[in-house]
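Protocol step 4 of 6.
Sequence for Glutaminase A central domain-containing protein (Fibroporia radiculosa) entered exactly as in the expression construct, tag removed. Do not edit the line below.
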Amino acid sequence: MAAEYASHWESLAFVTSNGQAHLISTYGSLESSWALVDSLFGDKLLAMGVISSQVYDAQTQFYEQLMNDNAASYAFGLPMNDSSEIGNSVALAMVAATMTNASVRAQILSNIASYASLKSRVDIFASSYYVSSGSYISGPASPAQGALFAPMVLSLPIPSSNSTTPPTPPTSYTPEPSPAKSHTSLSVILGALFGSVAGLLVIAAVSVVFVRRRRHRAVPKNLPISSPPFLYDTVTPFIPSEDSISGSYVSLERLRSLKMERIRHAVVTSSRFESTPQPSPHESSMQPRSTATPRTATGSTTTRGTSAGGVAAGGVGSHLGQLDEGPGRNHVMTELRTEVLQLRQFMQSMNERLQVEAPPTYSE
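Step 5 output, structure tokens:
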């Protein structure tokens, strides 16, 4: 049925003009009329063979003659028909795919390439344009420009419609990678990813260690450990009164003068005791104890030492009170000298401390 329709169509549309057979644009039009028959691409694409090869050969020769005779007017390809100056890159690409002559096909594609590379064009490769000047009309960046791959599609071997065998791939066909190879590529990618992460972690750890060591070296060693001064390091001496209940606070200078007075008093008492002649045992027994000079002196000394609040004077008086006993005299003198020596050592340490430390200040 399709072959019969095609044969009837050829008898009406296929004419000869000026010795050149070609297809006219419409039925009953002038024999000189023509058009771009891009619909023949469907018969070629599906390999149906409905249109005879005579039509393809005649159209190839006719288009070649048109381009040669009108090279200046058709600088960027053939127009859509004989009465138009507008060309279409989509229709030209499909017509080029149906040409049986490779040179004619290349000439049509070359005209399309000249238009696409036109420097004066301001549009984005429009599909409709004037074939004489390449001026833009419509269809910028049209998805229909995919028809430019029509010649490439027909270059693939396609079996006829009555064949059941699958098409054989071309010689330049590259098979898809096998699953094993894809697994290998995936493992390589994962390995590179984990390796990069591990490398970054190692670099971060090394950086942290380096920064810590640098800070540790920057801190000076053997720094003196200093504590804030205590506000109550200086203690004000307290001198108790005779009743050992009440007393008063004195300064260090006052305490020092009191200590010196006690020492001088103890030394004077000791020298008096050594210079006073001691009575013989017989005379001692004849004299009453109440009139003993050392005892009176000692009593007065003890009283003065106690009133001053000193420990040294009181000790001297207590020892001198035992001088009348006779045999314990040497022992008392030894203890007295020992106590005086201890007082001197204490005063020496107090002097050294006063020279080192600043005297305290007091405010009411």
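Step 6, annotate. The longest strand covers residues 14-17.
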